[in-house]
Design a protein that fits this description.
- By secondary structure, the protein is mainly α.
- It is 42% helix and 0% strand.
- It has one domain.
Amino acid sequence: MTGPFRTPYPGYDILDKWASPSFDDATRNVLRLRRVPPPRRFLSEERYSTLQALCATVIPQRRARPVEIAPWIDAALHENRGTGTRFAVMPPDREAWPLGLDAIDAEAQATHDGKGFSDLPSTDRGRLLKAIDADKLRARQAWHDMPAGKFFRAIALKQIVQFYYSQPAAMSEIGYGGPAAPRGYVRLTASGIDPWEAPFGNWKEERK
């Protein structure tokens, strides 16, 4: 896709509800904290660079100020925050992420004459991730006993998308009404929206 980013909800910003009954002090505090990306504290500089390239490949952004994703993943790892669950075949996130990022970089180097993942153009990064997802590995030993496809789908993809849509700017682009506390939602039918939600979006297929 080419051209500037166009949201189907032009002019809609969930932060416009800041002083409305939609948000209470607890919600405002959460959103306030999300507007300031934390510093890198867990991953090495090289792994962090790979993570940034991975986030940019999974969710390409054409906005003037891209939503930062990598800082929040690094912060969760630093604080050892998670869901409290994991697949039996997977190590904890604090082990899985460093191993997975190193392995993705190793796959890039094995496939592209020693170039790291963050050095590849986006098209090559995308092809490489599809190969990893399909278990077509060139550096299988770099993954050790961790399933590559499981890491990519169950950890990397899932968390990248989750942290992206936890940001107000990303919520606004899909017309999300924001956290349901304290006001909540009343009109829950498929065609019903509450007055404090975004109006129906103008979805048009973009030319590629």
